[in-house]
């Protein structure tokens, strides 16, 4: 990195008081020659002000086209904190030049002013301009007939994507397989009619029945769906008295034994005592849906 | 309202006595709790019972114990090839003075209070006797000496052993259909019970054993009233009715319900039977069982519990399968309950 060239160390003294506020404005730039069209020039400004003055962010130059040949690409302020009664800032500026000189020529990036304030007073700190030398890219009149300077564009280089493509396809296939397995495991569509998952189907049916209707009929339909799931799991009709034998043959449901026995009591009441309202009070529809879900879960764990 | 409460108290009182009856009989008959329960159900449903079992399993002892506990008058007759209907009704003999004399036979001797009529070895009796029994069982009355005799408290118990087939007459379908239940008496399976039965001298003297049963645990004259109260007091719901009808259908047309039994052509297995009377008996028995269990509603378990005893003998199989009847009917009943969903 070339040594920074200290171009200016200026204390512009409008008055003695103002000079006391802005201690230093220092502009640092790269080498001042050997620039071509399109080059980016990075300048830095060091600013030191007396406390309690601080930099006024509104005075930071805005990235914009400054003239027909010069753009300010970016401007960033770094607060370097205060030490010894001085508050220091560093301002980083990126200019890009589009000037096309016919022969080497000195140009100037214009100066600007920054504002510091202590809340009531405002003081300007003037940043000086920066002069540099731009050179042409080629001679004015080419001698040979060769189109020496105008070269063809670089051809497009294909990025090697074969591996990534393969990985993408493989992960796509694996995800589909896993989704299929998950659907199979939880008996989602298209495995919804899977024989080994009667409770998954029943839990859905109970939810649906109780969503579509709220009366006694819907409740009974919900009970019936669960009954059919018990029958399908046991491979035969399961009555209330068969519960111990059922739990013996399907140990996965044993933890739910009390709930299942309650279900059978309630169902007995709803169907054979013709007291569906009382049954509904005993085991509310929400509890019935919950029981269906837990039975489906137990069934899933068992398989 | 008043009447309703009366029925309720009657029923709960009677339930206590029914339990006492079972306990009394179970004191002397070991390892036959199920048979005793079924007999109690039949008693409170006012149904006649046919017992079946090997020789010497205690059929007669059991019936004598039941009869003693139920109370009322008890008559028995042994079935033989030469038994004629008249032998049940009158007894013709010569008196000491040498005059011919006709006395009432076993049926008429006790008059209206006859509560248990026990027909031993019924399959040894001729069809003529069976047909007398038909009316006796169905109407609880017979006509003799040009007048009608009524037996309002009568319950017929019959037994037959299935070991012999010679010189026996198979009961006609109509007679079997009139039996409320046909109960198979197994040999007790529990080893301790078997040992006691064989080695405990208490079980060797049958008369002394029967004397241990408390007499008249029930008032047999109340039985018809209690039976009616049970039938009207125990409810059946719509779901249960549908279930019962579905069971009936499944028994009559098992092939349409996807029932399969190994080595049996289901198309032709069931020849007929499972009569409406049979199904109504089934519901009657189920109601009594529900009442015994302390419920006011019939549940499918009640139906299932009494199904084989009430229905099996009413299912008539194709003659091809008649020889293997017992295992096939049992399998059919089990399959029907496995297949027909409830509620």
Output the radius of gyration of chain A: 42 Å
Largest sheet of chain B: 5 strands, parallel
- Average pLDDT of chain B works out at 86
CATH architecture of the largest domain in chain A: Sandwich
Low-confidence stretches of chain A: 1-16
How many separate domains of chain A?
2
- How many individual β-strands of chain B? 11
Radius of gyration of chain B: 21 Å
Portion of residues within helices of chain B: 40-55%
Which whole number gives the mean pLDDT of chain A?
A: 85
**Largest contact between protein chains?**
A-B, 17 and 20 residues
The geometry of chain B reads as: globular
- Give the termini separation of chain B: 31 Å
- Total individual domains of chain B: 2
Structural class given helices, strands, pairing of chain B?
alpha/beta
GO molecular function, one term (chain B): ATP binding
Domain AAA+ ATPase (chain B): 45-189
InterPro entries (chain B): AAA+_ATPase, ATPase_AAA-3, CbbQ/NirQ/NorQ/GpvN, ChlI/MoxR_AAA_lid, ClpA/B, P-loop_NTPase
Protein name (chain B): AAA family ATPase
Question: What features would you describe in this structure?
Answer:
The complex is a heterodimer of chains A (303) and B (343). With 303 residues, chain A is of the alpha+beta class. Chain A is 37% helix and 25% strand. Chain A is elongated and about 105 Å long. Residues 1-16 of chain A have low confidence and may be disordered. With 343 residues, chain B is of the alpha/beta class. Chain B has 2 domains: 30-81 and 110-218, 3-Layer(aba) Sandwich (Rossmann fold), CATH 3.40.50; 234-339, Helicase, Ruva Protein, domain 3 (Orthogonal Bundle). Chain B is built from 16 helices and 11 strands. The two termini of chain B are 31 Å apart. The A-B interface holds A 223-224, 227-228, 231, 235-237, 239-241, 267-268, 271-274 and B 235-240, 296-301, 304, 337-343. Chain B: One of its GO terms (molecular function) is ATP binding.
């Amino acid at each position: 990195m070339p040594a920074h060239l200290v171009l200016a160390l200026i204390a512009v003294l409008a008055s003695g008081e103002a000079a006391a506020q802005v201690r230093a404005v220092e502009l640092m730039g790269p080498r001042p020659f050997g620039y071509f069209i399109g080059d980016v020039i990075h300048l830095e400004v060091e600013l030191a002000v007396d406390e309690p003055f601080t930099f006024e962010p509104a005075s930071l130059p805005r990235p914009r086209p400054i003239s027909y040949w010069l753009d300010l690409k970016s401007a960033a302020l770094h607060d370097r904190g205060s030490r010894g009664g001085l508050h220091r800032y560093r301002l980083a500026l990126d200019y890009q030049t589009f000037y096309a000189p016919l022969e080497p020529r000195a140009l100037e990036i214009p100066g600007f002013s920054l504002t510091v304030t202590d809340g009531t007073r405002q003081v300007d700190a003037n940043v000086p301009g920066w002069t540099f030398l731009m050179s042409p890219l080629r001679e004015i009149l080419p001698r040979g007939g060769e189109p020496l300077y105008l070269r063809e564009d670089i051809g497009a280089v294909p990025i090697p994507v074969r591996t990534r493509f393969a990985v993408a396809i493989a992960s796509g296939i694996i995800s589909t397989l896993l989704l299929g397995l998950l659907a199979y495991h939880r008996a989602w569509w298209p495995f919804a009619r899977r024989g080994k998952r009667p409770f998954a189907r029943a839990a859905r049916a109970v939810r649906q029945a109780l969503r579509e209707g709220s009366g006694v009929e819907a409740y009974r339909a919900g009970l019936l769906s669960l009954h059919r799931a018990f029958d399908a799991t046991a491979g035969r009709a399961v009555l209330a008295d068969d519960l111990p034998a059922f739990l013996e043959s399907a140990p996965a449901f044993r933890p739910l034994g009390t709930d299942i026995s309650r279900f059978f009591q309630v169902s007995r009441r709803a169907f054979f005592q013709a007291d569906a309202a009382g049954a509904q009070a005993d085991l509310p529809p929400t509890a019935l849906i919950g029981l269906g879900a837990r039975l489906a879960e137990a069934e899933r764990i068992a398989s | 309202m008043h009447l309703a409460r009366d029925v309720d108290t009657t029923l709960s009182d009677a339930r206590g006595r029914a339990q006492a009856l079972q306990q009394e009989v179970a004191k002397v008959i070991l390892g036959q709790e199920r048979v005793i329960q079924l007999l109690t159900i039949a008693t409170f449903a006012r149904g006649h019972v046919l017992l079946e079992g090997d020789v010497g399993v205690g059929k007669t002892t059991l019936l004598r114990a039941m009869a003693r506990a139920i109370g009322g008058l008890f008559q028995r007759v042994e079935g033989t090839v030469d038994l004629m209907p008249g032998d049940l009704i009158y007894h013709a003999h010569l008196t000491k003075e040498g005059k011919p004399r006709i006395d009432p036979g076993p049926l008429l001797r006790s008059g209206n209070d006859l509560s248990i009529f026990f027909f031993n070895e019924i399959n040894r009796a001729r069809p003529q006797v069976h047909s007398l029994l038909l009316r006796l069982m169905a109407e609880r009355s017979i006509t003799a000496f040009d007048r009608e005799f009524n037996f309002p408290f009568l319950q017929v118990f019959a037994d037959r052993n299935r070991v012999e087939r010679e010189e026996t007459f198979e009961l006609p379908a109509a007679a079997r259909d009139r039996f409320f239940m046909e109960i198979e008496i197994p040999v007790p399976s529990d080893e301790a019970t078997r040992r006691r039965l064989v080695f405990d001298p208490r079980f060797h003297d049958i008369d002394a054993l029967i004397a241990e049963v408390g007499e008249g645990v029930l008032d047999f004259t109340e039985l018809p009233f209690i039976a009616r109260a049970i039938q009207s007091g125990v409810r059946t719901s719509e779901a249960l009715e549908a279930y019962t009808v579905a069971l009936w259908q499944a028994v009559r047309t098992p092939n349409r319900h996807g029932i399969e039994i190994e080595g049996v052509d289901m198309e032709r297995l069931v020849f007929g039977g499972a009569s409406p009377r049979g199904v109504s008996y089934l519901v009657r028995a189920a109601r009594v069982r529900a009442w015994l269990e302390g419920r006011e509603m019939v549940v499918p378990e009640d139906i299932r519990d009494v199904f084989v005893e009430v229905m099996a003998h009413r299912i008539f199989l194709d003659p091809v399968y008649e020889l293997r009847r017992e295992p096939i009917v049992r399998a059919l009943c089990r399959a029907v309950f496995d297949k027909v969903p409830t509620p």
